Amino acid sequence: xxxxxIAFDVETPNSNNDRMSAIGVxxxxxxxxxxxxxxxxxxxxxxxxxxxxxxxxxxxxxxDAPGFDELWPELAPLFSSGVLAAHNAPFDMSVLAKxxxxxxxxxxxxxxxxCTCQMGRRCYPELxxxxxxxxxxYRNIELDHHQAGSDSRACAQLLIDYQEHGIQIEKFRREYDxxxxxxxxxxxxxxxxxxxx
Length: 197
Fold this sequence. Notes:
The protein is of the alpha/beta class. It is built from 8 helices and 7 strands. The chain has a 7-stranded mixed beta sheet with strand order 3-2-1-4-5-6-7.
């Protein structure tokens, strides 16, 4: 059976977190990175100063980028080809779900995902926190934090690292209800719900 995970990361233009200003996608198949995609996204909404400072993405930079609806025909086959993965996945899953709703895109009711932050807590409990940059520094994974392509690749590399350390990723699968912006069919409670980006 082919193990295929679609690691992705989104950056957002403001605190509403309902549009993307960038997305990175890194595909892991049988323990190897086999495909990558990274692009700015025109969120067609306002940018907050904080988000600009965090991501370096300005309205001018995103103005000529494709909108989510233009990107979706390219993203949909990728996102449908395996289990989604992200670091602090409920955040990225919610942004994806809100973009699907905003652009009236009919995809799925629920989608499977795994969270590399949750798995990091299990694999490396000795760390003071399990933010992406902390884990990457600990495992010597290159990271340009809050750059979507780099973050998605780091997420993919963490998945591979966890597998090499005996973590059974299947046990961390959850389902996300895209219509109601929440995890279903599993417990993703307070312990795992802290935001560690």
